[in-house]
Amino acid sequence: MCGIAGEIAFRGHAADQGPVARMVAVMDVRGPDGEGSWTNGWVALGHRRLTVIDLSDAGAQPMHDPHLGLTIVFNGCIYNYPQLRAELGGEFTFSSTSDTEVILKAYARWGEDFVDHLVGMFAVAIVDERRSCVVLARDRLGIKPLYVAELPGRLRFASTLPALVAGGGIDTTIDEVALHHYLSWHSIVPAPRTILRGVRKVPPATVSVIHSDGSRHDRVFWKPDYVRTAATERWTAEEWQDAIHAALRTAVQRRLVSDVPVGVLLSGGVDSSLIVALLAELGQQPVSTFSIGFDSAGGEQGDEFQYSDLVAATYGTDHHRIRIDSNEIVPAVGDTISAMTEPMGTQDVTGFYLLSKTVSEHIKVVQSGQGADEVFAGYAYHQPAGSASRASALETFRGAFLDRTHDRMPDVVEPEWLYPTDVSRELLETHLDAPGAETALDAVLRLDTHLLLVDDPVKRVDSMTMAWGLEARVPFLDQDVVELAAHCPPELKATQGGKGILKDVARKVLPSSIIDRPKGYFPVPPLKYLGEPLLSEVSDALHAPEAKQRGLFRPDYVEELLAAPNANFSPGGNNLLWQLGVLEMWLQRHRIPA
């Protein structure tokens, strides 16, 4: 895990190392164990290092191979690097035991197709001096971030959006389309857009080749279909359970590769509990586990310690309960917003920030259950999609997921920032109606997994863990697990209130009380039910001179929300006032000019 940055100058110009140094400096938390830089004249690279694999200086980055004419910076982890190293060992000599060097040699062997051989999470930049190009690549599910900004005569990239802003010269105008998405979908802005017009995201599963003359081409290297296959169409439910069980066991085992201990974020739900059980099957004991709880609020239980304690006791883990008092949350809000790579309006981000802070005091790497709901149909809105017609997938999804309709937008944003058409609906329609998904639920799960999940919860997990130099690995987003789940019959996933096939797998290894209970959602009281002093902070941000000069939101709408701060919630239970407040506070925290 690391932070990467770089500048590519075109047509014989020199790359400026100053902006790269500034970008790297603001990503020090992503890589607290080391820093490096490199330039060949037209490319400048920077790197912050978190040591997880090959703790020696031999694994430092940027990593340069003069014989091959290649240099790399890399953020992430390649889980199959030992196997690739063995495969490539007959052709290349290795000077480290790092996965970084394996990527470099894989590129030397397979060229742009090197990504097809990588199993893991990654954002990669490789300078190929012989071809006079830079190859950028992002992993299949977008677990590791990669932002780019095009400037006159050059292109910059970094692991975070604020890093690119720190480099200077970026168009920081608000993107009206992105604002429409942000206000429609719980603050989600899918790739390639970001909330700023001058910064884009390399989409997941994409290789982007940038040549020294400024030309470029992109390739999507992975796109599973959500259809039944000839190989699996005759499988029984039990055979599906066995296949998914085996795939998950492999996914969890892959994510043990490390030169430091690997723990688990244990919520007490099915997903994280299953990870603990699979680790036990693999003989990994004792495993360090970490659970978080908040104060109860609004009649909602704030922790699931009774369940996480049961799992920890069943499998003899080294368990850590982390209780976050409401009084701890408000002081941490500002630092949480500063740590966001993009504004995130869901209520639990600060809780995850505080969890990561405490966990990082014990361990450097954890496995986490994020992604299981999107891959295996665990959300409430997946249930109606399971019985809907293929043609009604769009309206079924929008009815359960939409925060604000397009018709409502003129009441929310000022005319200058109002996009004239329902661009959010159009994007959903494009993805849901695309071929390669047989049923409405197939289409919705494909949308969730390959478009929306990347920005929530994946972006949230990466931002908040890396804010404390903590590496989070997500086995439910293993490429083989996702492909297998994509082919799995929808009726097996939508049963038992959602994630039916996963619950059946879990029944073989977990106590029934962990499985047969309502799905838990943690309230983070000061952020869901806004009160003082946080309400004043939100009000101050929305009334600040910068906010008035920016003029994003209609004053009467802002006052309407402030007058009843706990009366307006999204279908997912997020406070709509908080969503507006986070955006403006994020812009101000990162000094985005109005």
Describe this structure as you would to a colleague.
This protein has three domains: 2-220, Aminohydrolase, N-terminal nucleophile (Ntn) domain (Glutamine Phosphoribosylpyrophosphate, subunit 1, domain 1); 237-324 and 351-376 and 428-515, Rossmann fold, CATH 3.40.50; 529-589, no CATH class. The chain is 41% helix and 16% strand. Strand 13 (262-265), helix 7 and strand 14 form a beta-alpha-beta unit. The model has no long low-confidence stretch (mean pLDDT 94). The chain is globular. A six-stranded antiparallel sheet has the order 2-3-1-9-8-10. Strands 4-5-6-7-11-12 form a six-stranded antiparallel sheet, covered by helices on one side. A five-stranded parallel sheet has the order 15-14-13-16-17, with helices on both faces. Helix 7 (270-281) runs parallel beside helix 8. ATP binds at residues 265, 292, 368-369. It holds the Pfam family Asn_synthase. GO terms for molecular function: asparagine synthase (glutamine-hydrolyzing) activity; ATP binding; transferase activity.
Top keywords for this entry?
alpha+beta; 3 domains; single chain; 594 residues; Glutamine Phosphoribosylpyrophosphate, subunit 1, domain 1; 26 helices; Rossmann fold
List the helices and strands and how they pair.
Layout: E1 2-9, H1 17-25, E2 34-39, E3 43-49, E4 63-65, E5 70-78, H2 81-88, H3 99-110, E6 120-128, E7 133-138, E8 147-151, E9 154-158, H4 161-167, H5 176-184, E10 200-201, E11 206-211, E12 216-220, H6 237-254, E13 262-265, H7 270-281, E14 288-294, H8 305-315, E15 318-324, H9 326-339, H10 349-360, E16 365-367, H11 372-376, H12 382-387, H13 393-401, H14 409-412, H15 423-433, H16 440-452, H17 454-466, E17 471-473, H18 479-487, H19 490-494, H20 500-507, H21 512-515, H22 525-528, H23 534-543, H24 545-550, H25 555-563, H26 576-589
Parallel strand pairs: 13-14, 13-16, 14-15, 16-17
Antiparallel strand pairs: 1-3, 1-9, 2-3, 4-5, 5-6, 6-7, 7-11, 8-9, 8-10, 11-12
Helix pairs in contact: 1-4, 2-3, 6-7, 6-18, 6-20, 7-8, 9-10, 10-17, 15-16, 23-26
